[in-house]
Write a structure and sequence with these properties.
heterodimer, A: 247 residues, 11 helices, 76% helix, 0% strand, B: 308 residues, alpha/beta, Alpha-Beta Plaits, 2 domains, six-stranded mixed sheet
Chain lengths: 247, 308
């Protein structure tokens, strides 16, 4: 087998064999959908414009795993491997860094996307949530969000000195971002000032793109989040490519 | 024959410390070449410069005529590396690890025959994070051989191994050399250098203080060896004192003690006793070692490291 597919296979096995990684990257979103479905159901409610709780919120849960995977799981794993010397051992072979990174990103990307697809499947099939828009568009937007935050994770791994700092910084970033995104708490219940600040978060933009597409709105109505996510992807990729190091 | 490795005036400094301070030598194809010296002498820095893992400050390094900093991938395809400090990805088995690293090379070896030679045959499906230190070290040696390298770099290869595994690994290293490959290893373990290396460079404070075969290095310091033999009867000691290199001979009870110099001392003393037809048993020799060579050349004990 060639290096790309071998690395991808190994990274997939490593993730699936690590209970914590499997939980956060694969099982968390579907389980969150089940929990919210059991608690709130999907009966029409006036505060959601006579849509059900899951109709209005299901797709926004994707943001939680996207940001945890990108800003905590990915940097912690990369930095742990760098600190232990595992990446250094790769450096002593003819392996091109770009092949390693591409295979690693593809595995993380596919696992997150599968997780989001499972979450949507559970919400629609088990709890009757129904998208007004095109599900392919929703998954495309999720894919863009996953890539953007993975790129941020790689950029953070390049500049963060140690696993401890990665964990601390990840937690400091992730929980405010989730809170401000509308994924856990609807933005409508937050004060005006907080809502305005929240608009500067790329995660909030991602949630608005997902919710808009789910509700049947068009990409052109949501060009701002699209531009923000593409911008984050471009800047973070450039930073990761510039600063990535094996040791 | 062309050199496998050629270093010319190589230097590498870390801030104020000249870790490698003007080193030149050649490694011939097909030999086991040892770089020995105390901890902190600059062995690993030098080796990592040759491997292309560190950027030298000045000097020229050629590996098969290529610069490891410029033609890095070509050099890596043809060389195998065992690092002094490294780790492996967690949650994968020994077999998966070897398959993973094999996939990085254009022409990987079949790693399966390596496992029994390294005593790892029953560890194929064990996670590498569950291996003992010695077992993990043997996996790193397997990784260094996974591309059928023409040149193998081994940095403190038997650190953490028990004596039995150490002997087995030495056999593997000799087989690699006998198969036509070149081996460059560092060690601070003198017995390893004496038993394994065809030629040895002794490094201290980033400089080569001596370079030769082990017998030549030991011979060069003219240190005395001591031979004790239990004999029947009282052979004429004058015959022993006449042997070339003998400095002193005496008999206490049934034991003869001879001190002297030269690589042929033991051989010649035994030859003299055999000519006299003296029954002998319990032959012991205490010879100068590379540690004595280091002491003679630097005035310091090897184990003191850089503290002196």
């Amino acid at each position: 087998m060639n290096a790309f597919s071998t690395i991808a296979t190994v990274q997939a096995k490593r993730t699936l064999r690590d209970p914590a990684a499997t939980f956060f990257m694969l099982a968390f979103a579907p389980m969150f959908a089940v929990a919210m479905g059991l608690i709130f159901g999907n009966d029409p409610l006036p505060e959601f414009g006579n849509r059900g709780y899951l109709d209005a919120n299901l797709v926004s849960f994707a943001a939680i795993i996207v940001v945890i995977s990108g800003l905590i799981v990915t940097p912690v794993d990369i930095i742990t491997q760098r600190e232990s010397g595992a990446l250094r051992r790769f450096r002593a072979t003819p392996l091109r860094p770009v092949v390693y990174i591409a295979a690693d990103v593809v595995v993380r990307f596919v696992i997150s996307l599968v997780s989001i697809a499972l979450m949507i499947a559970i919400g629609t099939l088990a709890f009757g949530a129904r998208p007004e828009g095109n599900l392919v568009g929703v998954l495309l937007a999720a894919a863009l969000g996953i890539l953007a935050f993975l790129a941020v994770g790689y950029a953070l791994s390049a500049v963060i000195p140690s696993q401890g700092v990665a964990l601390a910084l990840g937690n400091v970033l992730v929980y405010p971002l989730i809170f401000l995104s509308g994924a856990a708490v609807p933005l409508s219940v937050l004060p005006d000032g907080v809502r305005r600040v929240a608009q500067f978060s790329p995660l909030t933009q991602m949630v608005q793109l997902l919710q808009g597409l789910w509700a049947g709105e068009t990409w052109s109505e949501h060009w701002v989040p699209l531009v923000v996510l593409l911008g984050v992807l471009a800047v973070a990729t450039a930073a990761a490519a510039r600063f990535f190091r094996w040791e | 024959m062309t050199a496998a490795v050629r270093c010319t005036d190589v230097t590498k400094s870390y801030r104020d410390l000249r870790a490698v301070d003007g080193i030149s030598f050649e490694v011939r194809q097909g030999e086991i070449f040892g770089i020995v010296g105390p901890n902190g002498a600059g062995k690993t820095t030098l080796l990592e410069c040759i491997e292309g893992l560190r950027t030298r400050d000045t000097g020229v390094i050629e590996v098969f005529g290529m610069d490891p900093e410029r033609q890095t991938r070509e050099v890596r395809e043809r060389t195998g590396v065992q690092l002094q400090s490294a780790a492996l990805p967690t949650h994968i088995t020994v077999a998966e690890t070897l398959d993973l690293f094999a996939s990085f090379y254009a022409a990987p070896a079949d790693w399966r025959p390596l496992l029994p030679r390294l005593g790892l045959e029953d560890k194929r499906n064990t996670y590498v994070d569950k291996l003992s230190g010695g077992q993990r070290q043997r996996v790193f040696i397997a990784l260094a051989l996974i591309n059928n390298p023409e040149l193998v770099f081994l940095d403190e290869l038997t650190t953490g191994l028990d004596p039995q595994s150490r002997l087995a690994i030495w056999d593997v290293i000799r087989e690699i050399r006998d198969g036509g490959a070149t081996v460059v290893l560092t060690t601070h373990f003198m017995e390893e250098a004496e038993r394994l290396c065809d030629r040895v460079a002794i490094i201290d404070h980033g400089r080569v203080v001596a370079l030769d075969t082990v017998p030549a290095l030991i011979g060069s310091i003219a240190a005395e060896s001591r031979i004790t033999i239990t004999v029947a009867g009282t052979p004429p000691l004058d015959r022993l004192r006449a042997v070339a290199g003998v400095v002193h001979a005496e008999q206490t009870g049934d034991q003869i003690t001879v001190r002297g110099t030269g690589a042929r001392l033991a051989q010649d003393v035994i030859g003299a006793l055999a000519e006299l037809d003296v029954p002998m048993r319990d032959l012991r020799t205490e010879q100068a070692t590379l540690e004595d060579v280091f002491l003679a050349l630097t005035g310091r004990e090897m184990r003191e490291g850089t503290s002196a």
